[in-house]
């Protein structure tokens, strides 16, 4: 398996402010957009909410877990790895993704419409008080 620095260089990834991890826009098609997204032990996807659906694809690396809390407050843990390669996170759900083993995990994500900063929000204190597990997914 490649080192973290080799993966960052190979895919020309940059740090993702706010959420954490590393990313690069791959392409836009129609109204959709696609990125590469890398997490490590210390740079994971911090708990956040997007207004629209996001489809995740596991590409390589270690096993990761995704905490998803839907708009009704239902919590779900999903595992992403070579045996479980995709996860659809519905818009309006909070999500966070962290590495369980290995040095990194590389994903591709797709959104339609393509991502823009106004789609992103962080959890407030009231949300964190009602969902203590979400605090584990904060940078």
UniProtKB/TrEMBL annotation:
SUPFAM superfamilies: RmlC-like cupins. Transmembrane segments: none annotated. It comes from the Bacteria. InterPro entries: Cupin_DUF985 (IPR009327), RmlC-like_jellyroll (IPR014710), RmlC_Cupin_sf (IPR011051), YML079W-like (IPR039935). Residues 6-116 form the DUF985 domain. This is Cupin domain-containing protein. It comes from Bullifex porci.
């Amino acid at each position: 398996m490649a080192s973290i620095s080799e993966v960052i260089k190979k895919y020309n990834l940059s740090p993702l402010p706010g959420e954490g991890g590393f990313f690069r826009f791959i392409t836009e098609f129609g109204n959709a957009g696609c990125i590469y997204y890398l997490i490590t032990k210390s740079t994971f996807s911090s708990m956040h909410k997007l207004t629209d659906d996001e489809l995740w694809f596991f590409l390589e690396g270690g096993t990761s877990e995704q905490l998803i809390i839907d708009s009704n407050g239902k919590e779900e843990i999903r595992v992403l790895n070579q045996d479980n390669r995709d996860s659809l996170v519905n818009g309006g759900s909070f999500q966070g993704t962290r590495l369980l083993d290995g040095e990194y995990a590389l994903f591709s994500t797709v959104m339609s419409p393509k991502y823009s900063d106004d789609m992103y929000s962080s959890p407030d204190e009231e949300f964190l008080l009602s969902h203590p597990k979400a605090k584990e997914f904060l940078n």
